[in-house]
Task: inverse folding
């Protein structure tokens, strides 16, 4: 079982097997297996707990920019996908969105056109032991093979090129969610949807502000996550 070790400064280390080498010294495998606390050979203390999906996700290999939890969470909450849902995600990149979706739905079909990113995503899905993701080397601008989908998510530059095939591939009432960094892309997308059976449900930008709380210090962190992207929720009717 994978475990997380946390040092005094809150730094986290993911442990799988063997002795753990940290910047605060080596922690022996037998002491990690034994309890909730362990000390390194430099007598530095670590707190220990079993690793969750999100702990493991932090350790995946990175290719292109990944989607952040604030945006992933909104997709899951606003579309209401559940363990019966079948969803399509493109492009996969490092696979962060696909993995998060796979955690809550029945099946994820993931398209990626870049061979190098495909390899990274495949490794990441194996590392996370996710068996309900069907990874395909495909250019979504050309075609969508699947039908009757509950949700299609697009994290790529020209989502309007997918509108025609998404209309055919989605169930009535299904969602198309496009993640776009620029408002100029959002404007083009909204304009193009007018030719198809899509209702513009919601366009949002989420700002997350983390705080430092320690003794008398209680204020927003000086470095925050700035703009990531706009989320456009379109509904097939
Ligand atoms: C920003 S990354 C996606 C990151 C991903 N959402 C995540 O959370 O890890 C965009 C990906 O889309 C892929 N891509 C771009 N156009 C595509 C297309 N037409 N079909 C399939 N994949 C495409 C790129 O190769 C790249 O890997």
Result:
């Amino acid at each position: 079982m994978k475990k997380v070790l946390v040092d005094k400064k809150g730094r986290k280390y993911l442990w799988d097997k063997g002795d753990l080498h940290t910047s605060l010294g080596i922690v022996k495998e037998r002491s990690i297996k034994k309890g909730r606390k362990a000390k390194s050979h430099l007598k530095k203390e670590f707190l220990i707990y079993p690793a969750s999906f999100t702990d493991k996700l932090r350790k995946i290999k990175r290719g292109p920019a990944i989607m952040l939890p604030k945006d992933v969470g909104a997709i899951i909450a606003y579309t209401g996908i559940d363990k019966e849902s079948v969803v399509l995600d493109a492009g996969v990149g490092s696979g962060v969105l696909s993995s998060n979706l796979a955690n809550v739905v029945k099946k994820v079909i993931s398209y990626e056109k870049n061979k190098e990113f495909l390899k990274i995503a495949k490794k990441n899905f194996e590392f996370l032991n996710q068996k309900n993701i069907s990874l395909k080397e495909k250019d979504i601008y050309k075609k969508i093979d699947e039908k009757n989908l509950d949700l299609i998510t697009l994290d790529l530059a020209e989502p309007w090129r997918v509108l025609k095939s998404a209309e055919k591939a989605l169930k009535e009432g299904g969602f198309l969610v496009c993640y776009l960094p620029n408002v100029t892309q959002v404007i083009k997308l909204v304009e193009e949807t007018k030719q198809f059976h899509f209702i513009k449900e919601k366009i949002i930008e989420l700002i997350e502000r983390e705080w430092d709380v320690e003794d008398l210090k209680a204020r927003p962190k000086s470095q925050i996550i700035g703009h990531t992207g706009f989320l456009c929720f379109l509904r097939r009717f």
